[in-house]
Amino acid sequence: MAPKSQQGKSLGGRKKPKTVRNKETLSVSEAEPMNMENMGHPEIYPLLLTTKTQEIFNCRVNEDFTDEQPYKLIKKEDFFADFHKRAAVSDFYPFKKIIQEYPEDELLLVYDKDFKYGFNFYLIGTEEGKENYLNPPAVSEEQEEQKELKEHAAEDILIYKPPVSKPWVSLGSEKEIAEESVKEPTKQITYMISRKRSAFGAPIQFSDQNASSVKDAYIECTAYPDKNFTIKQLEKDVGMQAVPQVKGTSTQTRWTYPKNAAVQYYPREFLEKEKETLGQSKPFTDFLNNASVSVEIALQQNEIMNTFIDDWKCLAEEEGTFGDKTDTHLKEFQSFTDLHSLMETMITCVSWHPDIYGLIAVSVAVRLSLEDRVYFSSKLLLQPSLILFWSFSDPIHPQLMLESPDDIFCFKFCPTNPNIIAGGCINGQIVIWDITAHVDRIENIKTGGNRSKKPILKPMFLLEPDSNKEAMYIRHCAVSSIENGHKKVITDIHWLPDTFEINRIGSVFENRSELCCQLVTCSADCTICFWDIRPQKTLTPQPAEKKKEETIEIPFDVPTTFLHLDLTWKPLYKIKLSKGETTLDHCPTKISLCEDHLYKAQDKLLAQNKVIKPEENPYQNLESGLANVLKPIDDFCTKFFVGTEEGEVIYTDWKLERDPETGRLMTKKPVNLCTVHDGAVHTVQRSPFYKDIILTIGGWNMAIWKEGVTTGPLLQSSCAPKRYTSGHWSLTRPSVFYIGREDGYIDIWDLLEKTHEPAQSQNICITMITSIKPWAFSTKQQFIAVADYYGTLHILEIPWTLRRPSANEASSVSHYFEREVKHLEYVEQRKKIREQHKKEMDLETEKIKLKTYQKSKEQLEAELQMDYESYLELEKTILLNLGLIKMTDRMSLIDVE
Amino acid sequence: MTEVEETLKQLQSQKGMQVPLVVNTEGIPTTTQDTTTTDNPTTTQDASLMYSFILKVRSTIHDTDPQNDLIFLQIRSKKNEIMVAPDKDYFLIVIQNPTEQAALSAPGVVP
């Protein structure tokens, strides 16, 4: 029964409550119902009975079960009926199997009040269990009330039963025993060692022994590298220094030094003898014959035609320019008039400034006849005579005004120094100005004009007066001596070229100073004077005294360049143009010098003496001429052309010659003299292109001369409708020149176009043109300055056609001149022939006349008869021709014919 | 000699001709006219210069076409024309001034 079983296994029973609580759940799907097997009660099946089941089976908790009888016997059939009724819902369903297997009819259901087995009821599944329970239930009740005591009591109560030996169930205790028991692992080996008794305790004797000699005498424990103990050093701290590797080496080279070496050779040449033999050899002559043929052909071909001419290029005229090429008129550019002068003035001479663009100088003279001059002489003294400098930029105010003692009729800029101007006065004096101090004024004219264009927003009183606007009066630097110079108006003045100079007798010397220092003037007193602007070497005491008397205060601002000349200037040399024995002399109006440049001979010694400082004005330190030192040059052409007042053109020499009779130096007689013009010759000018072609204009016609041709002018124009009053060659076209007329017209002549009349005629102003001066600034711009009698200076622009020379113009013109020369020669020859012819004719007529006087009467009659017969014949022919007489026979026809 | 002279004079009578010059195969001038004014250095210089040039031309023509040969050589320069007639032994060199005229250059300005 259960309680017994409980006793039997008290150890297990103590474990009950704990394990019961652990196993609570009883899953329905369990195949086997849970039993208390683990407690040692496999027959006990705890189960839970619901109240319904308790009612069915009449095992209600407090009604049917008591403490004394907490069990009930239920029949199997009841269980099966319950199963039929309630199937799975039945509480006993899980125990269906057990109930079916239960051998007996009644099962024991025990109410477990204390929930010993987890549920409120338990079923005992085996008969044996049932029996156990039924039988000792009374015992078990007692034991349950006195659990603890029962163990002790059990000893008293127990009926001693000899313990039934059961097979020992190992519960693990033998292990503990085994662990704690001591056992010998292996079987022990016993050794027995014996030794002689006498050996015990004997003194020990040690001996040496080489350990290695005896086998197994020692046991080595060799060292070996154990990898476990080797440590590889993975990192090492090392210091380094970088040092450039320098290597010093040296070599020694062999120095090859340059040496100058020269070789002289001479060309191989044949000796004369060899040449001769060679020349005579046959192959040479053959060769020459053969070769010369072809060479001749080639030469002739060249002569016939130049195959290398580019016809296309030659056809075209030169580069196109802007502007109308057909325009041939001179265009008015600007005009200048002096508005400040009191009296009416006219312009006598015009000259462009050689260097400065747009600057033109004009000499102004009063427009009065000699009578009026005398009449107004007092008034004239007050008004200074001026040379005005006009600039393109300012048409109202002249830039500079040069004062002179009297009216200037001609002036010229010095070619080597444009700051020196020499002018010839109406009273025969030469005046020199030096405007070096005022150069910057006139040079900056261009910029001054530009400056004024900019708008200056300053009030008027702050504006500084432009010094350019004020015209400065510049006094002349030097004038020539009145007694020794010319007596009448100077009509022309020229600077001698800087290549040569003249001494007192007119010999030509080389001019070493490269400066223009000599002038030549001609005046109405029939003399031509040569002047030198350098100080004269010989200073006699007389002039010094004279100087003292005539010291005049010279104003401060006058440069002292020519102080030595002032008022004491004498001409170097004078020529009188006399007409021979007659008192009337030639009155030269213009001269034209030969423009040959003297080429200097090399003379080292004298060249070293020349010291010229470039900064200084060379004219400051003019030394007197070296004419005394040098030898005169003989073959220089000293001839020049002179135009006179009477219209003659004289070609004369300025060198003095010794008169064989008197031994004095006399002027030579003119080489050539031609009266060509009807009035005073006012232009004698050399062509800028040909050194020996001279244009002379005077009166009503003009003439072109060639130097050396003494028979006459190459070309002489016919009388013009108006008088010619001025003229000038064109500067760029060899065949063009301009002539100004009395009525204000300019005639433009083109020799290649027409030679009998001007090519063009253009009106410039209303009055007589007094001076024409063209000037070429550039290839694009060329001006012509025309001065008129009323004092106005007109600047005109020359059109393209008049300034651009056509192709081969120069050669054509020179051809023309050559032709003219030949023509003149031919004319001369023809003249001679004519003369001869004429002589012959005269002789013949003389003869005939003589003959007629010798005729007799008979001859007269015979002659009369002859005449009559010839008359009859004549009548016949005329009548035949008229058709009045018929032709009868052939003979008469032939006769007629 | 006279025949040679005659030929040379005939050549020289052409218009614009300067002295003819004959050079042998080594480049040495063989003739100088007695009447000429050209001094020796110029002739020898001319001869040597032309000689090397002629040889060059000849070799050029031969190289381009071996069957071709130089018959005549004309060099036109600005100032004159040089003509060369070669032969197997000698060269005849002639300088001529061509017929076109040099244009006169107009001077700038007359002061």
UniProtKB/TrEMBL annotation, chain A:
It is found in: Cytoplasm. Acts as a negative regulator of cell migration, invasion, and metastasis downstream of p53/TP53, through inhibition of Arp2/3 complex-mediated actin polymerization. Via its association with the multisubunit axonemal dynein complex, is potentially involved in the regulation of cilia function. May play a role in osteogenesis of dental tissue-derived mesenchymal stem cells. Transmembrane segments: none annotated. The keyword Cytoplasm applies. Residues 1-28 are annotated as: Disordered. GO terms for biological process: cilium movement involved in cell motility; inner dynein arm assembly; negative regulation of Arp2/3 complex-mediated actin nucleation; negative regulation of cell migration; positive regulation of osteoblast differentiation. It comes from Rhinolophus ferrumequinum (Greater horseshoe bat). Pfam families: WD40 (PF00400). The keyword Membrane does not apply. Interacts with ACTR2; this interaction reduces binding of the Arp2/3 complex to the VCA domain of nucleation promoting factors. Part of the multisubunit axonemal dynein complex formed at least of two heavy chains and a number of intermediate and light chains. Found in a associated with the catalytic heavy chain DNAH2, the intermediate chain DNAI4, and the light chain DYNLT1. GO terms for cellular component: inner dynein arm. PANTHER family: DYNEIN AXONEMAL INTERMEDIATE CHAIN 3, DYNEIN INTERMEDIATE CHAIN. It comes from the Eukaryota. InterPro entries: Dynein_IC (IPR050687), WD40/YVTN_repeat-like_dom_sf (IPR015943), WD40_repeat_dom_sf (IPR036322), WD40_rpt (IPR001680). This is Dynein axonemal intermediate chain 3. GO terms for molecular function: Arp2/3 complex binding; dynein heavy chain binding; dynein light chain binding. Keywords: Coiled coil, Cytoplasm, Repeat, WD repeat. Residues 843-877 form a coiled coil.
UniProtKB/TrEMBL annotation, chain B:
GO terms for molecular function: dynein intermediate chain binding. GO terms for cellular component: cytoplasm; cytoplasmic dynein complex; microtubule. Residues 4-96 form the Roadblock/LAMTOR2 domain. GO terms for biological process: microtubule-based movement. InterPro entries: DYNLRB1/2 (IPR016561), Roadblock/LAMTOR2_dom (IPR004942). Pfam families: Robl_LC7. SMART domains: Robl_LC7. Keywords: Cytoplasm, Cytoskeleton, Dynein, Microtubule, Motor protein, Transport. It comes from the Eukaryota. Acts as one of several non-catalytic accessory components of the cytoplasmic dynein 1 complex that are thought to be involved in linking dynein to cargos and to adapter proteins that regulate dynein function. Cytoplasmic dynein 1 acts as a motor for the intracellular retrograde motility of vesicles and organelles along microtubules. Belongs to the GAMAD family. This is Dynein light chain roadblock. The lineage of its organism: Eukaryota, Metazoa, Chordata, Craniata, Vertebrata.
